Amino acid sequence: MVVKRNPEQTRQSILAAAFEEIHRNGFRGTSLERILADTGLTKGALYHHFPNKDALGHAIIDEVLRRQIWARWIEPMLQDEDPIRGLQGTLRELTTDDVRLVCERGCPLNNLAQEMSPADPIFREKIQALYRLWREKITEALARGQGRGYVREDIDCGDTATFIISSLEGAAGLAKGMGEPAVVAACVGGIDRYLESLRSHQLFPIR
Amino acid sequence: MVVKRNPEQTRQSILAAAFEEIHRNGFRGTSLERILADTGLTKGALYHHFPNKDALGHAIIDEVLRRQIWARWIEPMLQDEDPIRGLQGTLRELTTDDVRLVCERGCPLNNLAQEMSPADPIFREKIQALYRLWREKITEALARGQGRGYVREDIDCGDTATFIISSLEGAAGLAKGMGEPAVVAACVGGIDRYLESLRSHQLFPIR
DNA sequence: CTTTTTACATACTGTACGGTATGATCGTAG
DNA sequence: CTACGATCATACCGTACAGTATGTAAAAAG
């Protein structure tokens, strides 16, 4: 059987396997050999696509994590006319779909941030950039929500966005730390009520 | 100069140095040699007091972290007749005293939880026990606060305690992840308003 | 004082793992 | 078809670091 070569697919499979292993065991807790065993590749392939282990981690942030955050948290919020409802929608998924996943592995971005942010400046830079992107999008969405009459006018959108992300990461982190699925429920409930408190109380949104 | 031997003090100095290094570089990122260099001791001393590196980490949770959580978060809350005011008091310290420390190193318990909880069952067990203790004390304090008329009657004290801890850890984690002192301010503001929303609205507390 | 145990210091070992050197095969340009 | 760079595989290297073996001085026991 002659295996067709597909460099880009090879690269993606390495990224996917590395993401999985790192999500499970952390960056330092994951050996390159383990990643390669998952993909069926060898070191030659890995070091052809990535100069070293750190660069692989950097690529995971820039590509895998950025996509995930965007698809899961930003896109639905942008789709919905009411940003609060958009966020609550994604929030609800956490309590139904992947409670166990969160309890066992936590949030991959939070994991990497806590582990690698103080250790390597490039990691820190890329993680901060991703957090800033996330916060910026929530901030903008909240501001638009204010204009549309969905969100209270007396809140600072930037600070609110910061606190929302902080609460989400805190929930994922504590769920992972305590290992109890009930933690997810309690925290999601708290966040949901907080989001609800951001609503403008006009009965009918403008336009 | 004849150095008087003091085994317990030696043990404590190892624990203190290990806590510092681990708080800075994480558990796996900290080498035993580094800890010993800080203390001026050698491996003989370390392996006399602790069977291995893991056991040292376990002792840090049981002794150092437990004491810190108790002194910083539980004790002031118990001292105050109004648990909400007690929590807010400690919260205020974060924004004044050690903002930079939090931004650079995060919460030591959260750090250890995210890094070691999935890796080692004993770590996970001890971390969970500490979180449960913390949550239990907040839960009890809130319940007493309800009886005294300080805390709203319509909240679930356990879920509320869980969300409080989650928010605190989330704030520390995001501050570390983003590296911005402003994150602490924004999150503390959010938590403070959340705590305020837990207040009973009777004008005069019972008794 | 003698003996034993405690509390360390010093020197060494084993290994896991990130990284490299080299070679083979595929795809593609000319 | 030929040549050459791209895409991998295989075998090996260096080292950081947890852990061990052994020795020694200080307390404690007797």
Folded structure, characterized:
- Two copies of one chain form a homodimer.
- Chain A has 207 residues and is mainly alpha-helical.
- Chain A has ten helices and no strands.
- In chain A, helix 4 (53-79) crosses helix 5 (83-96) and helix 6 crosses helix 9.
- Chain A is elongated, with a radius of gyration of 19 Å.
- The termini of chain A are far apart.
- The model of chain A has no long low-confidence stretch (mean pLDDT 95).
- At the A-B interface, helix 7, helix 8, helix 9 and helix 10 of A face helix 7, helix 8, helix 9 and helix 10 of B.
- Chain B binds a DNA duplex (30 and 30 nucleotides) through residues 2, 4-5, 7, 10, 31-33, 41-49, 52-53.
Features:
homodimer, 207 residues, mainly alpha, DNA-binding
Summarize, please.
The first copy, chain A, is mainly alpha-helical and 207 residues long.
